């Protein structure tokens, strides 16, 4: 059990609602920020318990910013915890957060879980996450629930939207005009899909480079495919002639 899960299980403060398997994922991707002056932006304040959890986990230098559409959530503000009231589906509101939050190192989308809410939040704020930061979207199972306008392979869900990001990180290798290298390609070091969660770790990237070391000795694996095939055919002809002579 890691520190986050221990905090959750021992919690007697403000209510926290989490799927139990999330804690391992949090630890894997967020532990490196502990003890730093990390700035965390979390959508979905609810009872405010998770903001207290993050504050305890990251330590005395962190700053926690929460976003919720319920004005009553302002009541959970405390030292190093600030709450903004607004609808994450509203692109103008999302853009206003960029000016109000000094820096975003970690963005946690645990808000309304609606398709437009998740997509708009990603599109507007992912570019503003620190170049070495982390984007994390929770509760992706709503993409399969009809009451959230979801459904298996239904167009317009966040899951279907996120599948396109797999293509985007491979754009370096694309020969199609429909898939070109983008700012996302240059910034997304890895996409990590888990049950109900997507984590994107950012890192400035250059076009990938490959090379070879050592000596080639196995026919059929030549660095020049055509030459390799010619060599392979020549070897086969030589073996057939040799077999004919022995016969």
Radius of gyration: 25 Å
CATH superfamily of the largest domain: Vaccinia Virus protein VP39
Overall geometry comes to elongated
State the low-pLDDT regions, or none.
none
Q: Can you list the strand order of the major beta sheet? A: 3-2-1-4-5-7-6
Number of DSSP-assigned strands: 7
Percentage beta strand: 15-25%
Number of domains as seen in the coordinates? 2
Question: What gap, in angstroms, lies between the N and C termini?
Answer: 71 Å
Give the overall pLDDT as a whole number.
Answer: 93
- Report the total helices: 7
Topology:
Layout: H1 3-10, H2 22-30, E1 39-43, H3 49-58, E2 63-68, E3 81-85, H4 91-100, E4 104-109, H5 115-125, E5 129-138, H6 158-169, E6 188-194, E7 197-202, H7 225-246
Parallel strand pairs: 1-2, 1-4, 2-3, 4-5
Antiparallel strand pairs: 5-7, 6-7
Helix pairs in contact: 4-5
How would you sum up this structure, described in words?
With 247 residues, the protein is an alpha/beta fold. It folds into two domains: 3-202, 3-Layer(aba) Sandwich (Rossmann fold); 220-247, no CATH class. The protein has seven helices and seven strands. The protein has helices at residues 3-10, 22-30, 49-58, 91-100, 115-125, 158-169, 225-246; strands at 39-43, 63-68, 81-85, 104-109, 129-138, 188-194, 197-202. It has a seven-stranded mixed β-sheet, sandwiched between helices. Helix 4 crosses helix 5. It is elongated. The N and C termini lie far apart (71 Å).
């Amino acid at each position: 059990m890691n520190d986050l899960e221990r905090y959750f299980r021992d919690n007697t403060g403000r209510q926290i609602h989490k799927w139990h398997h999330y804690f391992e994922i949090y630890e894997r991707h967020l532990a490196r920020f502990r003890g730093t002056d990390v700035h965390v932006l979390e959508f979905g304040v609810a009872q405010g318990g998770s903001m207290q959890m993050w504050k305890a986990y990251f330590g005395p230098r962190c700053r926690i910013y929460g976003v919720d559409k319920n004005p009553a959530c302002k009541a959970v503000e405390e030292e190093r915890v600030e709450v903004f009231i607004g609808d994450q589906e509203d692109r103008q509101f999302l853009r206003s957060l960029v000016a109000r939050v000094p820096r975003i190192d970690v963005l946690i989308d645990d808000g309304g879980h609606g398709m437009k809410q998740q997509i708009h939040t990603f599109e507007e704020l992912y570019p503003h996450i620190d170049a070495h930061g982390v984007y994390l979207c929770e509760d992706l199972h709503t993409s399969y629930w009809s009451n959230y306008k979801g459904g298996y392979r239904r167009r317009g869900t966040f899951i279907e939207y996120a599948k396109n990001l797999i293509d985007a990180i491979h754009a370096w290798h694309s020969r199609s005009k429909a898939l070109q290298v983008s700012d996302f390609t240059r910034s997304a070091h890895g996409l990590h899909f888990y049950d109900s969660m997507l984590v994107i770790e950012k890192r400035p990237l250059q076009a990938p480079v490959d090379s070879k070391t050592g000596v080639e000795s196995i026919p059929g694996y030549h660095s020049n495919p055509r030459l390799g095939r010619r060599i392979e055919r020549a070897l086969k002809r030589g073996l057939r002639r040799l077999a004919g002579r022995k016969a």
